Amino acid sequence: MLMLDRGRELVDRRQVLWLLVVRDLKVRYSSSALGYLWTIIDPLMMAAVYWLVFGFVFNGASRGLHPYVVFLVVGVLAWQWFNAGVMDTTRALQQESKLVRSTSLPREIWVFKIVLAKGVEFVLSIPVIALFMAAYGHPPTWTGLWSVPAAIVLQALLVSGIGLALASLTVIVTDLQRVVRILLRVMFYLTPVLYSVHILEKSFHVPHITQLVALNPMAGIIDLYRRAVFEDTQTPWQVPAIGAAVTLVIFVVGAWIFRHLEPAVLKEL
Amino acid sequence: MVAQSSAPSAAPAPAGGVPVIEARGLGIEFQQNRKRRLSLREMLFTGRSTSPQGTFWALKDVTFDVLPGEAVGLIGANGCGKSTLLRLVAGVLIPDTGGVTVRAGVAPLIELTGGFLGDLTARDNITLTAGLHGLSRAQVAERFDEIVDFAEIQDRVDTPFRHFSSGYQVRLGFSVVTTLDEPVILVDEVLAVGDRAFREKCYRRMEQLVGGGRTLMFVSHSENDLKRFCQRGIYLHKGEVRADGDINDVFKEYVKDSDKGLGR
């Protein structure tokens, strides 16, 4: 019930939330010469490195789908949103501590605005994917019409849930920031960004490995994005389905943790 | 236990009997030594926000009502809980016991430049901060000139905020927060901002706001300021209400206590 009240309050304050998102983006772009390009350059350079190392040196192209570059770019850009969102939400409350201490907005707003700002940057990078597809003469699929919006909603929920938990926990346990940084790096390789889920079953003879990987919601979410590019991602539907269920659980747990730590967090700020 | 020493009705009750601020048994406990971190599990599952050892109560069982249009001064020695009380009323701290009901919008003059970002221009900062405090886009546009005029930065609205001197930064903050038309104003010793001439302007603005029927809660150590704006005083001592009533009487009590060395 409390959570519903909070939700209603946030809906009432959506104008403020939007204002904060715009403010974040403005700050990011007003202080740098290349502005918007940075959001794309960073993941594209990483994709280029992975393409060289895994595409050619380790012959990773056979571990993904063809064309491998497009496969990579989709995964890396989606991962970029996840990575940047989780990193920044960890510091969400400390970074804005002055505002948190002087305005009585619902405190969840400080997490959501980061998730949304990063989400907007991700959406703005979608044209880059389109460019790559055009370059390879690779038309988009009809599935993408719903799978991409679904993936965006799921990813926003996922990053919010993790962010709500981490933002409040970090105020109390400051070391968490470092732990998060390491975990994110590990998670990157455990998530099917550089490879595809179907490869795992062939490479590892572990029972239920697909279901195991699907417990990481990013596996299903990235698969949903890829369904807009590839007719057949060779990934069973249960992967995004399990991912969606886990995402919802993470969101509810994250919101619960945030609510319970709120009084203590406000004292510490 | 009732910590009140006189009924809130001691102040002349203006029209409209429903209190705009209603504090009941407010209490908040803080960590005394920061080394003793409390266990996370305890906080999550018992809902406690402090551990049993090494804590102190910054406020204990504070109960009072503030009627619409009243101007209340909070008096007390450093560390007696004045600012904490203001933050609880503003809703930026959550009490451990009791609760506070505020039946109207609040304009907090607590951290004046808190919402401003150095990289953005004064223009962007005004729009954003005013928006954060609940003004709509149209309202901001309407009041923009007034805010700029008051802070006297007409020729520098497109300068990045960090290039302003600290004095001008506070001026702009004061200017934005006092243009909000929330019925309740909370002031934490931020009246004396800027140079002599600007300070006079601030005082006039405050008088205008209080005269306009707003409700004011005001933390200050300045006897002059307190008596200038407030009719009622609440004297806090070690987190408890020691006196509540006419500002002159309450201030006398505070002076008496602090002369005896009790105030600290």
Number of helices of chain A: 13
CATH class of the domain at 8-105 and 218-259 in chain B: Alpha Beta
CATH topology of the domain at 8-105 and 218-259 in chain B: Rossmann fold
What percent of residues of chain B adopt helix (DSSP H or I)?
25-40%
How are the secondary structure elements laid out?
The complex is a heterodimer of chains A (269) and B (264).
Chain A: H1 2-12, H2 14-30, H3 37-57, H4 68-90, H5 92-95, H6 97-102, H7 109-135, H8 144-172, H9 176-190, H10 197-203, H11 209-214, H12 217-226, H13 238-268
Helix pairs in contact in A: 2-7, 3-4, 4-7, 4-8, 4-9, 4-12, 7-8, 8-12, 8-13, 12-13
Chain B: E1 21-31, H1 40-46, E2 55-66, E3 71-75, H2 82-90, E4 97-102, E5 106-109, H3 122-132, H4 137-151, H5 166-179, E6 184-188, H6 196-211, E7 215-219, H7 223-229, E8 232-237, E9 240-246, H8 247-259
Parallel strand pairs in B: 3-7, 3-8, 5-6, 6-7
Antiparallel strand pairs in B: 1-2, 1-4, 8-9
Helix pairs in contact in B: 3-4, 4-5
Describe the structure.
The complex is a heterodimer of chains A (269) and B (264). Chain A has 269 residues and is an all-alpha fold. Chain A starts with a helix and ends with a helix. Helix content of chain A is 77%, strand content 0%. Chain B is α/β, with parallel strands linked by helices and 264 residues long. In chain B, 35% of the residues lie in helices and 23% in strands. In chain B, the strands form 2 sheets. A 6-stranded mixed sheet of chain B has the order 5-6-7-3-8-9, with helices on both faces. A 3-stranded antiparallel sheet of chain B has the order 2-1-4. In chain B, helix 6 links the parallel strand 6 and strand 7. The N terminus of chain B is likely disordered. Chains A and B meet through helix 2, helix 6 and helix 13 of A and strand 1, helix 1 and helix 3 of B.
